[in-house]
Design goal:
This protein has 490 residues and is α/β, with parallel strands linked by helices. The chain is built from 16 helices and 15 strands.
Length: 490
C-alpha cells in the first residue's frame, strides 16, 4: 500500500478537512494532488490569505470551499483563475450574476459615471430613478429604502415593523435563513429543535456568539402547516411581524407548492393586523417582474430584496413596502421624533452601487421574458441530459431546484415537493453525502466547471449550449470515476 503523500503548501483548514475526507485513500489524495497541481497560484494565495483573513471567500466559515480558486477575471458565464484556468461558472455569485459576469449594459452605465460620481452619502438623481423603479415594480410598495446586503434588509424590516406596531416578537419559519444576524440564524442551520404544537419550535442558535433569544424576541413556526396560522392568530397581540421566505431552500425544486399556504398566511396576518415581511432576497424579480409575490398573488406589507439588485457585485439591497411602516425610517433632518427608528450607514446607497443596480434592473425589466426563457431552456436541457445519463449509468443524479431560484446537483431520489426542512437537512447533512459532494466539486473543477462544496448548478443568460455540453460531460465523467472509487452514498 502506497504511503499517503499530503501536498505541501495547504492551509491548516484545508489540510484538516482533506484528512477527514480522504483518510488514507490514495485515490482520493491523487485527486487532491491533481487539483493542487492545476492551481498552484491559488494555493499560494490561499496560504497567504490564511495569515490575515477569516475565511475564503467571505462566507460562513463552515461552508468555505476546500482548495479555493483565486479568480483573476470573469466574463459572461466563465471565470479565469490566477493560473490561467478557464471555468464554466455554475455558482454565479450565489445566483446574483443572472445576466452573467460583467454584463455590457451594466458595465457601460458604471463606466459612464465612474469618473464623475459623488461617492457615498450624497443625494443623486439615480437614487430617485431607482426607488421609483422599485415602487413601480414590487407589489404593494409605496416607498423603497436602499441598503447593502440581504441581511441588512431583514434586520431593517423587523426594526421598522417594531417601530410601527409597538410590538417586539418576530415570527419566522423553521429552516429559513434570513442573514447573519440573530433573526436570520436562529433555527436556520443544523438539526431542528423539538417542536411543541402549542408554541412552535424550541429556539436554537445557528452558531456561537449569538445573543440568547427567548419567546419575547422570536417565535419559530412550522412552514406550510396549518398550525402556523393558528399560532400567528394566537400571538398576534405580541407580533411585530411575520418574516417568510416564499421559496425556502428546502422547497427550491417546487416553488409554487406553498402558494396556498402563503395566501392563507397573508389572510391571517391581515386579519390580525400583523405586518407580513416577505424575504425576496433570492426570489425577487425572477419568477415574474414583481417577484414571487406577483407570481403567487400575494402582497406583503414589507418586501426585502437583494441578489439581483446588486449590479456587477457592487453591494446594494432594498426594502420596499407600505408607507406607514417605511416612513418610520424617514428623516426630516430634525432630531427628537420618538416615532422614528435609526437606519443609516456611511456607504448606504453609494452612487456606484445605485448606478449599477439601476442599469441591471432596467435591463431585467425590459428583457425579462427573453432572459428567463433562455435560462429556463438551458436548465431544461441540462436536466434532460443528466436524466439521460442517470438512466444509462444507474447513478441517481438529478437537478434539485428551479431555474429561477437556486439549483443543486443532487444524488439519490428526488425529494417530495412538500419536503420538510428536517427531511432536507437529514439528507444534505449526512456525512456520506457531504463527503461525496465535496469530492464531486473537486472532480468538476479538474474538468473546468466551478461550483462550491455543495455543487450548485445555477445558470445565467450568458451560458450557452456549449457550456451545457461541458457541464454534462464533466458531471458524467466525475460520477463514473467516483462510482469506481465507491464514493457515492448508498
Amino acid at each position: 500500500m502506497r504511503p499517503v503523500a499530503v501536498p505541501s503548501g495547504l492551509t491548516p483548514p484545508d489540510r484538516s478537512s482533506l484528512s477527514v475526507l480522504c483518510g488514507t485513500d490514495n485515490d482520493l489524495w491523487d485527486l487532491v494532488r491533481a487539483v493542487v497541481a492545476r492551481q498552484p497560484g491559488s494555493v499560494r494565495l490561499s496560504h497567504r490569505a490564511h495569515q490575515s483573513a477569516t475565511s475564503l471567500p467571505a462566507n460562513l466559515p463552515f461552508s468555505a470551499p476546500i482548495l479555493p480558486v483565486c479568480c483573476a477575471r470573469a466574463e459572461g458565464a466563465h471565470l479565469y483563475d490566477v493560473d490561467g484556468n478557464d471555468y464554466v461558472d455554475c455558482h454565479l455569485s450565489y445566483t446574483a450574476a443572472v445576466l452573467g459576469h460583467n454584463p455590457p449594459p451594466v458595465v457601460a452605465a458604471v463606466r459612464d459615471r465612474i469618473a464623475t460620481g459623488v461617492g457615498a452619502a450624497y443625494f443623486c438623481p439615480e437614487q430617485v430613478e431607482l426607488t421609483e423603479l422599485l415602487t413601480e415594480t414590487v407589489p404593494g410598495a409605496d416607498r423603497a429604502g436602499l441598503f447593502h446586503t440581504g441581511a441588512d434588509t431583514v434586520a431593517a424590516a423587523a426594526r421598522m415593523a417594531r417601530a410601527s406596531t409597538g410590538r417586539q416578537v418576530v415570527a419566522k419559519f423553521q429552516g429559513s435563513y434570513h442573514g447573519s444576524h440573530e433573526i436570520g440564524l436562529y433555527n436556520s442551520l443544523g438539526p431542528a429543535g423539538p417542536r411543541d404544537p402549542a408554541s412552535g419550535y424550541e429556539l436554537r442558535p445557528g452558531g456561537n456568539g449569538l445573543r440568547a433569544l427567548t419567546g419575547d424576541d422570536l417565535l419559530v413556526l412550522p412552514f406550510d402547516d396549518q398550525a402556523a396560522l393558528g399560532l400567528v392568530a394566537e400571538h398576534a397581540a405580541d407580533l411585530a411581524c411575520v418574516v417568510v421566505d416564499p421559496v425556502p431552500r428546502f422547497r427550491g425544486q417546487a416553488p409554487h407548492a406553498a402558494r396556498e399556504f402563503l395566501r392563507a398566511l397573508r389572510a391571517v396576518t391581515a386579519e390580525h393586523d400583523v405586518p407580513l415581511v416577505v424575504d425576496e432576497v433570492i426570489t425577487g424579480f425572477r419568477m415574474a417582474p414583481g417577484g414571487a409575490q406577483e407570481a403567487f398573488g400575494v402582497t406583503a406589507d414589507i418586501t426585502c430584496l437583494g441578489k439581483l439588485t446588486s449590479g456587477l457585485g457592487v453591494p446594494l439591497s432594498a426594502v420596499t413596502g407600505r408607507a406607514d411602516h417605511l416612513d418610520r425610517a424617514r428623516s426630516d433632518g430634525l432630531p427628537g421624533d420618538a416615532s422614528k427608528t435609526w437606519l443609516s450607514s456611511t456607504h448606504q446607497a453609494n452612487h456606484l452601487a445605485v448606478v449599477a443596480a439601476l442599469a441591471q434592473l432596467r435591463h431585467l425589466r425590459d428583457h425579462h421574458g427573453e432572459i428567463f426563457d433562455r435560462i429556463d431552456g438551458l436548465h431544461d436541457l441540462l436536466r434532460a441530459r443528466l436524466d439521460e445519463f442517470a438512466h444509462r449509468s444507474g447513478i441517481p443524479v438529478h437537478l434539485r431546484g428551479h431555474p429561477r431560484h437556486v439549483t443543486l446537483l443532487a444524488l439519490g431520489e428526488p425529494l417530495d415537493d412538500r419536503a420538510s426542512y428536517e427531511e432536507w437537512a437529514e439528507e444534505m447533512g449526512s456525512p456520506a453525502m457531504v463527503r461525496a459532494m465535496q469530492m464531486l466539486s473537486l472532480h468538476l473543477r479538474l474538468r473546468g466547471v466551478y461550483t462550491l462544496g455543495a455543487p450548485t448548478m445555477n445558470l445565467s443568460a450568458a451560458h450557452t449550449e456549449a457550456d451545457i455540453d461541458q457541464i454534462t460531460s464533466a458531471v458524467a465523467d466525475s460520477l463514473l470515476v467516483m462510482a469506481r472509487q465507491n464514493l457515492l452514498p448508498t
